[in-house]
Amino acid sequence: MSSVLRNFTALSCTFRPCFSRLSTGKTWVLDSEVRTLVLRVNPNRKCSEGGKFNQPVSAEFVARVSGVPTMARLPFQESADGLHAAFVGVPIDTGTSNRPGARFGPRQIRVESAMLRAYNSGTRAAPYESVKVADIGDVNVNLFDLKDTCKRIREAYRKIVATGCIPLTMGGDHTIAYPILQAVAEKYGPVGLVHVDAHADVSDVILGEKIGHGTPFRRCVEEGLLDCHRVVQIGLRGTGYSADAYEWSRSQGFRVVQAEDCWFKSLAPLMSEVRAQMGSGPVYLSFDIDALDPGFSPGTGTPEIAGLTPIQGVEIIRGCRGMNLVGCDLVEVSPAYDTTGNTALTGANLLFEMLCVLPMVKYY
Ligand SMILES: [Mn+2]
């Protein structure tokens, strides 16, 4: 790690608690003695409970455009050691079947995540008061060999989940869900799956290849990584290679909720059924940004019209609260197709929503 990044991390970990506003409301200070004074005046201003949890750098005290961009402006650390949850990037698009560019997803999500604040105003979740989370950087992928990349991802995630740390993954194309689930299922056994996507991603082969972003969940089923009666696929739509493109999914025991079944509706009632379906067993949440309508999230590789709204996306994730989530991902952000940056911004917010529904997160 460069010394610059190390210094930034030290700043965010050590000195961030010392940024405090004096009672005048005008002066901003960086001084530990003043911090003590301010904490006495306003104990709620304290940053972390004895350093037990990491705090993001707040835009109240440090400009959003300043610093090395980590996810949610959290500290960076090299490994998942000591963390309850970790943001991790998997920057590949080698498995993409149409527009490339998802390799730049993690980087752009980190940049746009500078808009995130510490609390969830909608649900009153306070993740940084109850979960120790950091950005642990990216898997060292091989851009020239997708199978080798899968091996590298599997090995990296074995280490992440070994101590019970919950990975919050920034993709990367959807291929990555396969090696991630190999590592997750090795630790927890077959998992339930909440899969939000425009596509089922259960093709057997594409262009003769078994590994790609249209095949991960087929491979997962073949290897027994999923508890198939605890799998739901939400948002599926678009043209198919046959009249019933989702027959294979249903024949495995998956619940398939096509986009048409989501149109014009709140998805809160659906999620109540999904919570019952998932029960208390381990669940993995995989969210392909192309589940959302390309009008909201055009920055993706294989867009399909008439998709979910961001509101429905948030309803799905908030509806996962109470599940035994052991891992989450947000994949397929391909920034170059969205000059506004809003696709990555949406991805960053959805990842924050995922953090907020992890078990043990405190709510006010
Ligand atoms: Mn997908």
TrEMBL record:
BP term (GO), one: putrescine biosynthetic process from arginine, via agmatine
Cofactor(s) needed: Mn(2+)
- Record keywords: Hydrolase, Manganese, Metal-binding
Similarity section = Belongs to the arginase family. Agmatinase subfamily.
Which organism does this record belong to?
A: Knipowitschia caucasica (Caucasian dwarf goby)
- Superkingdom of source: Eukaryota
Q: Which GO terms describe its molecular function?
A: agmatinase activity; guanidinobutyrase activity; metal ion binding
Q: What is this protein called?
A: Agmatinase
Among NCBIfam families, the record links this protein to: agmatinase
Q: Name one Pfam family in it.
A: Arginase
**Cross-referenced Gene3D superfamilies:** Ureohydrolase domain
